[in-house]
Amino acid sequence: MQDTLAVAKALLGKHLVHETPQGRLVGRIVETEAYIGPEDKGCHSYGGKRTKKNEVMYHIGGTAYIYLIYGMYCCFNVVTEDEGKASAVLIRALEPVEGLDVLSSNRFGVPYGGLTGRQQYSLTNGPGKLCIAMDLGREDNGTDLCGCRIYITEPELTRSFEIVETARINIDYAEEYKDMPWRFYIKDSSHVSVKD
DNA sequence: AATGCGATTCTCT
DNA sequence: GAGAATCGCATTT
User: Fold this and answer.
1) DSSP element (H, E) containing A48
2) pTM of the prediction?
3) Nucleotide lying nearest to A77, CA to C1' measure
């Protein structure tokens, strides 16, 4: 059960990789949020709710759960734990690592060199933004992250960093769970969506 | 058949 | 900081 929290923290600093026809896209994970199964009022599977939309949450850990939010953006999650636990970790922000021109083209329609400073900063610093840049869409929902197209790796150069634990974003409806410190980010990263 | 809304982002002010 | 954009799907009539 608490294992999801461990995964959320362990994912920080890892590289999310998407092998696309345009090239290999890589981002360093700098911000995550844990959504912990039926008990968590902020979780799509709260109370054991199981629908067409959240079905993938009930799959085995290591599956990609991607859903459409607000009619126009996607959010990318990593399903955690055993089959049926319906827990997941939302990837909220990345630092661009590889494939900068493709990431930039997907988001802003121009190569990385044509970006303003503000655009560079906002390339992947949010759950909807990183899906656009990394070309992750609903067609990738249910993808096995242990495969060779979308996966997570340990970077070649590991840096030490400090982890900040804080409340999750935009789940005011989650009552006593909205303040749980289940959001994690790398303190000195310049690409975190919201800092305290 | 109709209604309501969300684990967001962008554009003004 | 507020408001709009936009739509699949769960829930209600």
Assistant:
1) none
2) 0.96
3) B7
What's the pLDDT at A1?
A: 53
Does residue A71 reach within 7 angstroms of strand C, measured from its CB? yes
In tens, the pLDDT along A110-167 reads: 999 999 999 999 999 999 999 999 999 999 999 999 999 999 999 998 889 999 999 9
> Separation of CA A69 and C1' B6 in angstroms?
6
Task: Confirm if A9 and A87 have CB atoms less than 8 A apart.
Answer: no
Handedness of CA A17, A18, A22, A23 (dihedral sign): positive
Location of structure tokens 């990183």? A130
> Does residue A157 lie within 7 Å of nucleic acid chain C, judged by its CB?
no
Distance CA A120, CA A191 (A): 10
Short-list A24, A166, A11, CA closest to A76: A11
Three-class SS state of A108: helix
pLDDT at A196: 86
The kind and range of the H/E element at A24 are strand A23-35
For residue A70, say whether its CB is under 7 Å from any atom of strand C: yes
Beta-bridge partner residues of A63: A144
